[in-house]
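Run HTH cro/C1-type domain-containing protein through structure prediction, thanks.
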Amino acid sequence: MNQLKIHKSFNGNRLKQARTIRNITLQELADHLEKSHQAISKYENGKAVPSSEDIMKISKILNFEPSFFYLDNVNNTFYEKPFIFRSKSGIAKKYTDQTKELILLMQHLVENIEYKVSLPKFDLSLVHQSEEEFSPTSDNDIEELATRIRRKFNLGDGPISNLTALCEKMGIIITYINLNHQGIDGCSVLLENRPYIILNKDRESAVRIRFNIAHELGHILLHSRYINKVINKKIHSKRMEYEANRFASALLMPEKGIVGDLTALGLDYLITLKRHWKVSLQAIIYRAEQLEIFTPEYALYLRQQISRKKWRTREPLDEDIPFEQPKLLLYAIKYLEKEKNFFLTQLSFVTGLKVEEIEDFCTGIEGVQNKMDSRPNLMVIDGPR
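Sure, done. The structure for HTH cro/C1-type domain-containing protein is below.
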């Protein structure tokens, strides 16, 4: 385990971060502690230090280890990175701030795991170069990028059996978190040369989540090196969403593979394609229209059929196609816990996270799987202690 970066005393910035993560206001925390709003504000601003007893109470209320509040500050440059959200419009800032802080917790966790085990490295050459002005990417270039990913990882032109495993092989960290706002599907960001994709545990079906992952991968490759002022301009967001959707469609349903399958018409046939390609009916229609296999009129007709059948939010086979589970961090921790005594306890101390939360970060929607049927390539950096 790396040397713990300790703040000289109680760190009020960490208290504010913890409050943001737990979505607790200053007044709510003050009420729990039977303190004034002003007292908590002074703790956060470094103008006062809580007693040891109050630190223990704060730790319990906010569900962190006491060591969390003595960690050094988060690298300020991280807050300048473009966090790209997949969400409905009108999401309150407190929810986007909460998600950002959760990702920074995840980054700190991964950093500490990497001191003991070598995780797959992300190939930065795949990412478009940094831009200060937005420059749209053409459909052809997006299709070529998706093809490049498929060729690099020998995926051929058929369905991707496990997109989560592919992303982890690429060096991308994927985790599912219970986000407080149902409007947020996910978020992606590139930190310290490693991409992170955070997905809302409470969202949708396996096929829609696969599309969300592919969509976030598109943002990482196409948009993660833009500066914040570019990302945050509403005038660009619609185009970036289009580009990420186009990439997701091209990656999951390459033209050379899907065209040969779109030989029959009707929703019943599309349902068989859904099982094969592991994408939603609506995604298949979207892709077929993109490739001009379906006319706009026929695509509209199919969408109307879906609406009449009340399939817009819940389609056939949604209950049958299993969720993909991230395994990279879970396996790394299980391995290190076996090789190094009390590794998880040490990890909890240096990150300030409860052991249960670490385990939750490292598992998917359906929790821990005891059988590791697809082990990522890991290399221990030093021997057991």
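The longest strand covers residues 184-191.
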